[in-house]
TrEMBL record:
The lineage of its organism: Eukaryota, Fungi, Dikarya, Ascomycota, Pezizomycotina. Keywords: Heme, Iron, Lyase, Membrane, Metal-binding, Mitochondrion, Mitochondrion inner membrane. This is Holocytochrome c-type synthase. Residues 1-75, 102-127, 326-347 are annotated as: Disordered. Pfam families: Cyto_heme_lyase. Belongs to the cytochrome c-type heme lyase family. Its main location: mitochondrion. Residues 63-75 have a biased composition (Low complexity). It is found in: Mitochondrion inner membrane. It comes from Lentithecium fluviatile CBS 122367.
């Protein structure tokens, strides 16, 4: 999950500063001070050059000593794995969109644009089915059926849009601080979206706050082999109480780094995402669950999770829904009585 391709490459390394050229004239006592005749001009004979020999042929004019001592040796470009990966997503900088060897059918080459903004304001792009297939081959999944790749890309894109919708929900609540977030969460999850003015919890584009910019996804990384503490606790709870907490472990885990801005400036917030697979629908369609929450990198992340979870539990446990219904019923009766009193006529 979470494969995006960023078209921007990291900045090139700064070249070393050249050394200053000094006086190239050697001292009189040095043998180099004596002039020697220049070697005759010659053209290299390619046929007589042994294999592995240096192809460079010295020029007729001797090279000054200063050039031999002061010119720095150019650094070779890095060709390691890390140099070929995009630091924003740990994916290859340029992944081939060409048909793979022994591929049995063509795959679409077009890429779908996401609704997730990058740090520069542009939108992340999802890989094309052909790029996805090539990436899976690079990872060793050579048994991937080609005719299933398009469906895999659709599911992949859908899950990432869902993950961003969850992050937008967190940012709408807490981008202005814990106190404002508490006001939004005080009446439980069922009323929070109404307070925020977003009826659709899966809305990934609406941002009603005009004073601060919406969040942006700066970078992300996949960590499928590093389970989160929460997922481990749930697995232990499932072992102890299988009837209540039993569930398979997450099949993937991602860390998304999001830019959050307020009146004081912008900061980076890390979100943790666990991907779970549920029981398929009766029609055979797969079901997935996402557990998206701020990482506990400090007191603020822990407080945000406690506020959102605690207020929802208290609202339901204390009968918040019943109180709301009772208030609505009382308001309705009062309105009916006022309307009846105004319509009375006396003889």
């Amino acid at each position: 999950m979470g494969w995006f391709w960023a078209d921007t490459a990291p900045a090139a390394p700064v070249a070393p500063h050249p050394m200053t050229r000094g006086n190239a004239e050697p001292p009189p006592s040095c043998p180099m001070h004596k002039k020697t005749p220049s070697p005759p001009s010659r053209v290299p004979d390619r046929a007589s050059t042994p294999q592995g020999a240096c192809p460079y042929v010295p020029p007729d004019t001797p090279t000054p000593a200063s050039a031999l001592t002061s010119a720095p040796t150019p650094a070779l470009p890095k060709q390691g794995l890390l140099a070929r990966l995009n630091p924003l997503n740990n994916m290859p900088m340029f992944l081939s969109n060409e048909r793979a060897e022994k591929q049995t059918q063509d795959l679409p080459l077009s890429r779908e644009q996401s609704t997730i903004p990058k740090g520069d304001g542009s939108l992340w792009e999802y890989p094309s089915p052909q790029q996805m297939y090539n990436a899976m081959l690079r990872k060793g999944y050579t048994d991937t059926p080609v005719d299933a790749v398009e469906s895999m890309v659709s599911v992949h894109n859908f899950l990432n849009e869902g993950a961003w919708a969850e992050i937008m929900g967190w940012e709408r609540r807490f981008s202005r601080g814990l106190s404002e977030g508490y006001k939004v969460c005080a009446r439980g999850e069922e009323n929070a979206n109404k307070v925020l003015g977003t009826e659709d919890p899966f809305d990934t584009t609406t941002w009603t706050d005009k004073d601060i910019p919406p969040p942006k996804l700066l970078r992300f990384t996949g960590r499928p082999t590093e389970p989160t503490p929460k997922s481990q606790i749930l697995q232990w709870a499932g072992w102890a109480w299988p009837s209540k907490f039993s569930s398979p472990p997450p099949f993937d885990r991602h860390d998304w780094f999001v830019q959050r801005c307020d009146e004081k400036g912008c900061a980076e917030v890390r979100y943790v995402i666990d991907y779970y697979e549920g029981e398929p629908e009766p029609t055979g369609e797969p079901v997935f669950y996402l557990d998206v929450r701020p990482a506990i990198d400090g007191p603020r992340g822990a407080a945000e999770r406690a506020v959102r979870w605690g207020t929802d539990v208290w609202w339901r446990a204390s009968g918040g829904v019943v109180r709301e219904v009772k208030k609505a019923e009382e308001a309705r009766k009062k309105a009916e009585e006022e309307a009846a009193s105004k319509s009375r006529h006396y003889n």
